[in-house]
Every structure is written in structure tokens, then in C-alpha cells.
Amino acid sequence: MTSLKTTPEAVFNGLEDRVHFYFCLLVAVGLSRKQGRITSNRQKNAFIMKWLKNAGQIATFRQRASSEIVWLRGEILRHPPDRDLEPVLMLIYRTASEMRRT
Fold first, then answer.
1. Fewest C-beta in 10 Å: which of 47, 57, 69, 101?
2. Domain locations in the chain?
3. pTM of the model
């Protein structure tokens, strides 16, 4: 059996890009909520799905965050439509930001 070895370089590879990706997503969600376009978790999830679709068409995100886009879309589709994904996004963003500082 092959064992997976995780090196510090592998963990931190692309970390800055992921932090930027989650920052952009959280800002977009916050602005949309402030503008009154998001008033429920269902609307928030629909907004995030659309945002992820658009992000997948932008070369920078497609190259550097495609695994995050696929994973987040799967998370939304796998859970009830009223699940609030924002706390998960915040946790990922904060954790990645802290890892970047160490």
C-alpha cells in the first residue's frame, strides 16, 4: 500500500491563492447581503453557486482554485438547501489566514 506523505511545502502550496479565493467569495456574499439580494440561506446558497460558476470561468480562479470550486459546489448540493455555508467559509478563510502567518 502506498502511503501519502504531506510535506510543509505541499500544505502551503497555493495557500495564498486559497486565502484570496475565500476572501473574494466572502466579500461578494457580504456585499450581496448588504444590497438586499440575499435574505435567506437558500438565496445565499444560490448566490454562491452562481458565483462559483462564474469564478470557474475566470482564468485565475480556474487555475488556482478549481479544487475549491468543485468541493464547495459539492458541499452545497450534498446538504439541505437551507444550510448556512457561510460559517464554514469563514472557518476555512480564518484557518488558512492563520497558517499563512506561521
1. 101
2. 38-102
3. 0.84
